[in-house]
Design a protein that fits this description.
The protein has helices at residues 2-37, 59-79, 85-121, 130-163, 176-198. It has five helices and no strands. It has one domain (2-174). With 200 residues, the chain is mainly alpha-helical.
């Protein structure tokens, strides 16, 4: 169906155009910014890009770009759902990948960011020791390499799907249980996005 092909490819173009800068910025953030503030904790934690010393929070870039990637990836997946699995799996990787990275950000990075920032700023709510700050900074770097790898996989999959010929055949209609699971999954994504935006 030409309409589905056009819509899927439009979303894939958006995913590629957003995903490239997103991966590049994440690498810069990891190697340069995180490389600086994690170099020698707890002293180096003062260089974390938060607080009054930093007029622009990194989230000002990453949040809208991540949201655009999430919309583009799931838009491509929904529009291209009737393609055969040999093509459809390329649409699944960016959507599930960016969602997993956002969930990882919320459950792993937000608490660690807060703990390290409170420790660095000498906040009354600081609950960690210097030794724990070193361990948390190391864990942050390790997990962030996972985010970079996931971002690269999402970008490359979207790019590959965009450059492959559109499949001529249409996949058979999915069983009811698959369609129900897809509906639940999309509702879950919408709920997560609503919660994420509300808690920024």
């Amino acid at each position: 169906m030409p309409g589905r092909e056009t819509t899927t490819k439009a979303f894939l173009w958006l995913a590629v155009l957003v995903g490239g800068p997103l991966v590049g910025a994440k690498l810069f953030d990891l190697v340069v910014l995180a490389g600086a503030w994690s170099a020698n904790p707890p002293q180096s934690l003062a260089m974390m890009p938060y607080g009054k010393a930093w007029p622009v929070d990194t989230g000002v870039f990453f949040i809208p770009f991540s949201a655009a990637m999430l919309i583009a990836a799931f838009g491509a997946l929904v529009a291209g759902w009737k393609t055969p699995w040999r093509y459809r799996w390329l649409l699944c990787v960016p959507s599930l990948g960016i969602l997993a990275l956002l969930v990882l950000t919320v459950i792993a990075f937000w608490p660690v960011n807060a703990a390290l920032w409170h420790h660095a700023s000498g906040s009354a709510t600081d609950t960690i020791t210097d030794a724990e700050s070193i361990a948390l900074a190391r864990r942050w770097i390790l997990l962030d390499w996972m985010r970079v790898a996931g971002g690269v996989a999402a970008f490359v999959s979207a790019l590959r799907a965009l450059t492959l010929p559109w499949p001529a055949e249409v996949a058979p209609r999915d069983p009811l249980w698959v369609r129900v699971l897809l509906g639940i999954a999309l509702a879950g994504v919408a709920a997560f996005v609503f919660w994420f935006v509300k808690n920024i």
